[in-house]
Amino acid sequence: MAITKMEHMEGKGAFGKKIFALGVKNRMRGPAAIARGLYDSDECFELIHIKDRPIKIPEAMEMDIDTFGRTVQRHFDAEKPIEVSSRYLLAYSILFNTSLDYLYGKVDDDCPNVDILAISQKTGLSINAIARLNDAIDERDGRGQSASFIQKCWSHLIEDELYYQLPFDWHNAYAEECERLKCLAALDAIGETVAEMDSSIGSALIEMKAKPISKAGEGHYAAYYGMLHKLAQDIISRLDSLVNRQIKEDGVYEREHRNMLYQFQCELAVAKGKPMPPKPDDDFHWHSHIVV
Q1: Which site from 22, 45, 55, 165 is most exposed, i.e. has the minimal number of CB atoms within 10 Å?
Q2: Which domain, by its residues, includes 169?
């Protein structure tokens, strides 16, 4: 039977299941797909190649893949990583873009970047969140310049009291929506119960319960959207504050005012046939669309 699902791994070793799961995560279901991945990767092939064939030979490709596949299938029976050769362990770490620490069971996350993993363990933030911030270091804006403002923006927000306030408000909004859905579920259950009852008195009593539940649901609905509005207003307010703080730090108005004064002085000097005044600083730039 071809092993392509986790159900097929029943009775296999714990380490073998880990290898299979990594294969599935990387779109390599089963030993044949993993073997093909090992063969296609030059770095992996160099580690685990057949002794008398250190380079890929097209005529022997199917034979090599078949050999790798049988080895991978044996590894599926492994209970511990020590049962697998170090060459294959390293090849698996390369193929699946994970760390040897994860394969050996020293860490619980398959993230290959030990620095990101350490930050995740220390801060409690997800691997993907930290990786996103780390990747943003190389981001570029529309003009090809470093988008360092991404880290600066998040730094400001984390330093701000919104760091605590936003999650609490989000949790309160979540709690209100949960209560609204509980009321809705209760109302639906009342409706289904009434539909099955023969006694009009019994159904009337049950329907009486629906009124306070319905009113409570409306209250939670209003509270939920009230929290969403508060979240939006807080974010708008904080971002407005951060924009103005950054503008002040960069001295946008002062620098532009100084530059424009110099530009007008230059244009007047040229018009009068006088020498150009000295530049105020190295940040000066001409505005060709503004003329005196």
Answers
A1: 55
A2: 160-249
Separation CA 53–CA 46 (nearest Å): 10
Positive or negative torsion for Cα 179, 181, 183, 186: negative
pTM comes to 0.57
Rounded to an integer, what distance in angstroms lies between the CA atom of residue 3 and that of residue 21?
12
Q: Which amino acid is at 163?
A: Y
Q: Which of 151, 164, 161, 167 is nearest to 246 (CA)?
A: 151
Q: How many CA atoms lie within 13 A of 230 on its CB side?
A: 16
Residue 90 CB-density burial (10 A; 0-12 exposed, 13-18 middle, 19+ buried): middle
146 assigned to some structural domain? no
How many angstroms separate the CA atoms of 292 and 267, rounded?
7
For 231, phi then psi, to 5°, come to -60, -45
- Count of structural domains within the chain: 3
Do 217 and 181 contact (CB within 8 A), yes or no?
no
pLDDT of 196-236, one tens digit each?
Answer: 877 776 677 777 888 899 999 999 999 999 999 999 998 89
Q: What is the pLDDT of residues 82-99, one digit of tens each?
A: 999 999 999 999 999 999
Do 18 and 72 touch, CB atoms closer than 8 A? no
Same domain, 170 and 261: no
Burial (CB count <10 Å: 0-12, 13-18, 19+), residue 55: exposed
Which phi and psi (to 5°) does residue 146 adopt?
-60, 130
186 CB neighbour count, 10 Å cutoff: 16
Residue 210 near residue 187 (C-beta atoms within 8 A): yes
Q: How far, CA to CA in Å, does 239 sit from each of 24, 233, 271?
A: 42, 10, 45
In a domain, 205, yes or no: yes
